[in-house]
Amino acid sequence: MNRLSIWLASIAVIVMVILTAEQVFARYLFKASSIAVQELQWHLFGFVFLVSAAATLEKNQHVRVDIFYGNFSHRRKACVDLVGTLIFLMPSMAVLVWYGWTDVLAARSYANLGIVNSNEGLWGFLLRGEGSPNPGGLPARWIVKSFLPLGAILVMIQGVVIIGQALKTLSREKNSNG
């Protein structure tokens, strides 16, 4: 799962670079730019940040206060990882999933969700709901808002893996000592 999210984030970064270069050329050479493209850059940045968090946690490259942790034994590190994941990571990610999903649903039903026109097709149906407040901005803000609960769910899945690894380390250490 993390490999897929990293691959998608990598593609999003490439698209972001291309869009940024296009906006720079458009602004300075043609004295024009697009609000929708600028918003798309922000949406892609949010996507990259949120879906890459779980992979960063998997590779143990996240921010950590290593003043003490680096000198701990494997058993003590496993205890810190287990307690930290159970007490801090999982509850905070659950809050992000809850409120993020609530916001997605609110954005989805924000405006113009009356009777569905059978002629609008899937694309028209997807673009309904809260849109950008900026003239020329992107529609369907619920899509970008869905990255928050998605990223939190991915981090929670990685948290389950960390809990399993910590329990395995603690049981292995206990069996070797006892």
List the helices and strands in order: HHHHHHH
On the 0-100 scale, what is the average pLDDT? 86
Our measurement of the CA-to-CA distance between the termini, rounded to an integer number of angstroms, reads 37 Å
The domain tally reads: 1
Helix content: over 70%
Structural class per helix/strand content?
A: mainly alpha
User: What gyration radius follows from the Cα positions, in whole Å?
Assistant: 21 Å
Task: Please give the count of helices.
Answer: 7
Keywords:
mainly alpha; elongated
SSE layout:
Elements lengths: L1 H29 L4 H24 L7 H4 L4 H35 L12 H6 L14 H5 L1 H31 L1
Summarize the structure.
The protein is built from seven helices and no strands. It is mostly helical. It starts with a helix and ends with a helix.
Describe the structure.
The longest helix is centred in the middle third of the chain and has 35 residues, at 74-108. With 178 residues, the protein is an all-alpha fold. It has seven helices and no strands. The protein has one domain. Mean pLDDT is 86; it is low at 111-116. The chain has helices spanning 2-30, 35-58, 66-69, 74-108, 121-126, 141-145, 147-177. It is 75% helix and 0% strand.
